[in-house]
Specification:
The protein is of the alpha/beta class and 299 residues long. The chain is 38% helix and 18% strand. The chain has 10 helices and 11 strands. The strands form 3 sheets. Strands 4-3-5-11-6 form a 5-stranded mixed β-sheet. Strand 8, helix 7 and strand 9 form a beta-alpha-beta unit. Helix 1 crosses helix 3, helix 1 crosses helix 4 and helix 2 crosses helix 3. The N and C termini lie far apart (61 Å).
Length: 299
């Protein structure tokens, strides 16, 4: 029997070029040269007997035939990718390996996991070590929960989970007495504690609630939210943090939110995973549960 289908290399070159909009960006994603991508697409076009991409300035766009062809073969490519990843991983059917930022894991995710285990006892969760510079490529990891603005490497898709809601926090006693905090502008008179990695949080929050703030300088800065919260509890000043990371501190009365003004920034925690793994049964169940938990999280 004559095989009429082209090679997977050629099909991936077409799919990624269409997704990225150029041969150069497709080459970066697939870790090959731009010439290799161009030649692969040319061989595919010769194989099918018609052009599948057209140049529009610096961009490459699918022709009508290319769109129709990719619409048919795209799902098959994703299915092959998913099956290969699954076979390479050698995992049990109910296993799910994820990588989560330690702060979110300890403050938000782990307290909710007993509910997941009760609902889905057949799924074994395994936590991979967190790496700050992780390129999200490890085939042994099914999904990552990362902090960002939703832009990830091309093979990765994501769902926003939680974390865009930022709030100021202070000690309960800061709301009483002659020097009590009564309006947002009063925070300018207090020592402002900064997160080292997100020094613009205070300026962003003040602008969002309509307070014209002068150039802000930190009384101190910390690179971990846990240290930032402890500094507030100790009386070193006030801070702006993601609400999802202080649920237990709020419930215990260790800190309070002096002004309930909804402010959302562009960063948050996202569940990230390869596009081809989206329909992996354990991942689909965990994704649905995680988003449901986020929907019910305190606002």
């Amino acid at each position: 029997m004559r095989i009429r289908s082209p090679s997977l290399h050629e099909l991936h070159a077409l799919a990624v070029t269409a997704e990225q909009g150029s041969f150069s960006r497709a080459a970066e994603v697939l870790c090959v040269t731009q010439g290799a991508i161009s030649r692969a697409v040319a061989r595919l076009e010769e194989h099918v007997g018609q052009p599948l991409l057209r140049r529009q300035g610096r961009r490459s766009e699918l022709t009508e035939a290319g769109r129709a062809y990719l619409a048919q073969v795209g799902p098959a490519l994703s299915a092959i990718e998913a099956a290969t990843i699954e076979l390479q991983a050698h995992r049990a059917v109910g296993a799910l390996r994820i990588s989560v930022l330690p702060t979110l894991a300890s403050k938000w995710l782990i307290p909710r996991l007993p509910d997941f285990q009760a609902r889905h006892p057949g799924i074994q969760l395994s936590f991979a070590p967190y790496r700050r510079d992780d390129p999200l490529e490890d085939p042994q990891i099914d999904a990552w929960v990362r902090n960002g603005d939703g832009r990830w490497p091309a093979p990765i898709v994501s769902d926003y989970v939680v974390g865009r809601d930022i709030v100021p926090i202070c000690r309960p006693q800061d709301l009483h007495g002659p020097q009590a905090l009564r309006e947002p502008a009063d925070l300018l008179a207090r020592p402002l504690l900064f997160h080292t990695n997100y020094p613009d949080n205070w300026a962003y929050w003040f602008a969002a609630v309509g307070v014209q703030a002068p150039p802000l300088r930190p009384a101190a800065d910390f690179d971990q939210v846990a240290m930032l919260v402890q500094a507030v509890i100790a009386g070193l000043g006030v801070a702006v943090v993601q609400r999802c990371l202080i649920e237990d501190d709020l419930a215990a009365g260790r800190v309070v939110v002096p002004f309930e003004r909804p402010v959302l920034n562009q960063r948050g925690y996202f569940l990230c995973y390869p596009r081809g793994r989206r329909h992996h049964r354990s991942l689909a169940i965990f994704r649905e549960w995680l988003l449901d938990q986020a929907q019910g999280a305190p606002a």
